[in-house]
Amino acid sequence: MKREALSERSDTVASGSKFDNFDCMSKFYRSKQWQEFRSQVLDADDNRCCKCDRTKKGNVVLQVHHKRYVTGRKPWEYPLCDVQTLCRGCHGAVHRFWPPKTDWDYLFEMDRIGEGVECDLCGRELRYVHMVWHPDWGELEVGEGCAATLTQRGRQDNDDDETQRFETFRHRRHWDIQDRIAQRIHLGVLIQIIQRSDDRWCISMNGATSVLKSFSSCELAQRHAHDALLSGKADEWLSSCGLKGSPNVYRLHGVIAG
């Protein structure tokens, strides 16, 4: 497949053939609700691609990838565990608009001197063509460097993505560590991990402390708080307590949102 064909495959989304109602989808992605949700997802991933770890520096474009779709649900009506931040290149590879980045098999090498053959990926003119194959894509004629990159295995799965997201949440500089309390604001919620007198750890969100669960370590409590935020359970609990998005709580504890 030549490089022109790669762009044709990515154009299927822009042409609307990928959706039953492309105009409706475009309206959704221009809405205030989507822009707010997009900012929330990028913030949860520290404004980095979950696959290649690139940031918005240079010409890198970050997008929101939905891991699954539910009929009738708007693009912003998903818990954070069902979405992730990807750069445009990694997002295209996931949806097969561009060739996958991993799990290619090396086939053979050919000397094509004088034939004007270009690499299907980077467009560089080649003398020695390396043929690679992917079960979901087929064959590509590429140069030596592109062949080496494609045939290196090591696909990240969803568990790897979630682990990376938690490590970003846990180690970000916005944690304010005080005596027996670690606190920060994340996704608009004040999170406090509090060490009790029995050395167990409990979670407080927006000033409401859960008395039903405690944890043996600060990290386990952080993991539980992180999972609750991503799954939407934290929003449900805060709404039931009447504490969702309460700015007075932030001023009370002197925490500044990062």
Would you write up a description of this structure?
It is built from nine helices and twelve strands. The protein has three domains: about 5-95, no CATH class; about 105-150; about 180-255, no CATH class. Mean pLDDT is about 75; it is low at about 1-20, about 155 and about 245-258. By secondary structure, the chain is of the alpha+beta class. The chain has helices spanning about 5-15, 20-30, 30-45, 90-95, 145-150, 160-170, 220-230, 235-240, 245-255; strands spanning about 60-65, 85, 105-110, 115-120, 125, 130-135, 140, 175-180, 180-185, 190-195, 200-205, 210. A hairpin with a 6-residue loop joins β4 (about 115-120) and β5 (about 125). A five-stranded antiparallel sheet has the order 8-9-10-11-12. It is about 35% helix and about 20% strand. The protein starts with a helix and ends in a 5-residue tail after the last helix.
How would you briefly describe this protein structure?
The chain is an alpha+beta fold.
Question: Which labels suit this protein?
Answer:
3 domains; elongated; three-stranded antiparallel beta sheet; five-stranded antiparallel beta sheet
Fraction of residues in helix: 25-40%
Would you tell me the overall average pLDDT?
76
How far from one another are the termini? 46 Å
What count of domains describes the coordinates? 3
The main sheet orders its strands as 8-9-10-11-12
Structural class: alpha+beta
Strand composition percent: 15-25%
Would you count the extended β strands for me?
Answer: 12
Q: Which stretches are low in confidence, meaning pLDDT under 50 for 5 or more residues running?
A: 1-20, 153-157, 246-258
- What is the H-and-E element order? HHHEEHEEEEEHHEEEEEHHH
Q: Largest sheet at a glance?
A: 5 strands, antiparallel
Radius of gyration: 23 Å
**Helical run tally:** 9
Q: Give the overall form.
A: elongated
